Amino acid sequence: GENVEQHPSTLSVQEGDSAVIKCTYSDSASNYFPWYKQELGKGSQLIIDIRSNVGEKKDQRIAVTLNKTAKHFSLHITETQPEDSAVYFCAVLGAADNFNKFYFGSGTKLNVKP
Amino acid sequence: DAGVTQSPTHLIKTRGQHVTLRCSPISGHKSVSWYQQVLGQGPQFIFQYYEKEERGRGNFPDRFSARQFPNYSSELNVNALLLGDSALYLCASSLQVRGVGVNTIYFGEGSWLTVV
């Protein structure tokens, strides 16, 4: 199966700074990579995703970059705000399965200090 | 539109007991997946159901079972509960079992299970 590693496990930034979270994966055939934001009482929300036919995708302050050669992808949050504080998970859709099996990283707890 | 809904939100069970968790997918979604998230870790795939049939299973013991109903809602059942089954159980819905552009899964808020 797929092996997904996520770093860092915790990240503390000052409001207004940028935050970057990186994930690596093992199966070069994988082609779909979503990011989820998990907050207590709000569940896990899909915030952005990328498919392997593109190298970067942006949505306002959030961007994801994908390096297929190196098998890593990163979440970039610019101009961070206190409401960005949450746990973020990267995920990879397993390439070897004929069903929707996602492999998740272990999560990054982001703390944005006002 | 309602998102993925799960019940109950929290429950406490004793070792050896049985638990049933319920999930209703997003309207129009025919596939439901279940994930287990242990504290401090990412979600781990348990099952995927599509059109009432099991389409995928993760590395979980036979004590874990699930089913999907004609209205696409689903139940996750866990028998003979162990302390290690304490976790957040997430239900996710998607349009289909798999396909280009339809892989995206949307999570419910989860059911927190504590086994004592």
Helix proportion range of chain A: under 10%
Mean pLDDT of chain A: 94
What would you call the quaternary organization?
Answer: heterodimer
Range of strand content of chain B: over 45%
Shape of chain A: globular
Count, helices of chain A: 0
Low-confidence stretches of chain B: none
Unreliable stretches of chain A, pLDDT < 50, 5 or more residues?
Answer: none
- Main sheet properties of chain B: 7 strands, mixed
Number of DSSP strands of chain B? 11
Q: How many strand units of chain A?
A: 11
Helix content of chain B: under 10%
Largest interface between protein chains, with number of residues from each side: A-B, 26 and 26 residues
Explained architecture:
- The complex is a heterodimer of chains A (114) and B (116).
- With 114 residues, chain A is mainly β.
- Helices cover 0% and strands 56% of the residues of chain A.
- Chain A contains no helices and eleven strands.
- The radius of gyration of chain A is 14 Å and the shape is globular.
- Chain B is built from no helices and eleven strands.
- Chain B is an all-beta fold.
- The radius of gyration of chain B is 13 Å and the shape is globular.
- In chain B, the strands form two sheets. In chain B, strands 2, 4, 5, 6, 9, 10 and 11 form a seven-stranded mixed β-sheet that branches.
- The termini of chain B are far apart.
- In chain B, a hairpin with a 2-residue loop joins strand 5 and strand 6.
- Chain B has strands at residues 5-7, 10-13, 19-24, 31-37, 44-50, 53-57, 64-68, 74-78, 87-94, 106-107, 111-115.
Put the structure in a nutshell.
The complex is a heterodimer of chains A (114) and B (116). Chain A has no helices and 11 strands.
Secondary-structure blueprint:
The complex is a heterodimer of chains A (114) and B (116).
Chain A lengths: L4 E3 L2 E5 L4 E6 L7 E8 L3 E9 L4 E4 L2 E6 L4 E6 L8 E8 L8 E3 L3 E6 L1
Parallel strand pairs in A: 2-11
Antiparallel strand pairs in A: 1-3, 3-8, 4-5, 4-9, 6-7, 7-8, 9-10, 9-11
Chain B lengths: L4 E3 L2 E4 L5 E6 L6 E7 L6 E7 L2 E5 L6 E5 L5 E5 L8 E8 L11 E2 L3 E5 L1
Parallel strand pairs in B: 2-11
Antiparallel strand pairs in B: 1-3, 3-8, 4-5, 4-9, 5-6, 7-8, 9-10, 9-11
